[in-house]
Write a structure and sequence with these properties.
Layout: E1 2-5, H1 7-10, E2 11-14, E3 17-20, H2 22-35, H3 39-52, E4 58-61, H4 66-74, E5 82-85, H5 88-102
Antiparallel strand pairs: 1-4, 1-5, 2-3
């Protein structure tokens, strides 16, 4: 599991890079306190993610504790802009894509 951030709802992207809005900063601080990860670390992770893939959600917590992930999932309305997702989905999709391009069948 990973926790991803919706880059567009938490900040803006301009020629200097990604910057959180006032509301985005508050949301990041709230998650920071809950996850015991500095806000600056979350911002850095988003900025690096935007450079690699500007339209994809940014992974802000790559290995959240299970309890934290469940807490965030249950309280999604209170933590808008963040989502708990299964990181294996992307790996499965990439494996299927690679298999189909090589003529193999992946199940």
């Amino acid at each position: 599991m990973v926790v991803v951030a919706d880059v567009g709802s938490l900040g803006t992207l301009d020629r200097t890079g990604w910057n959180p809005t006032a509301d985005g900063t508050l949301a990041l601080r709230k998650l920071s306190r809950l996850a015991h990860v500095p806000t600056s670390t979350l911002v850095t992770r988003i900025r690096r993610s935007v450079i690699r893939s500007p339209f994809a959600p940014a992974v802000v917590l790559p290995h959240p504790e299970r309890g934290l992930a469940y807490f965030l999932d249950e309280r999604a309305e209170q933590y808008r802009g963040f989502k708990v997702t299964d990181s294996r989905r992307g790996a499965i999709r990439r494996a299927r894509s690679a298999a189909s391009s090589s003529g193999c069948s992946a199940k």
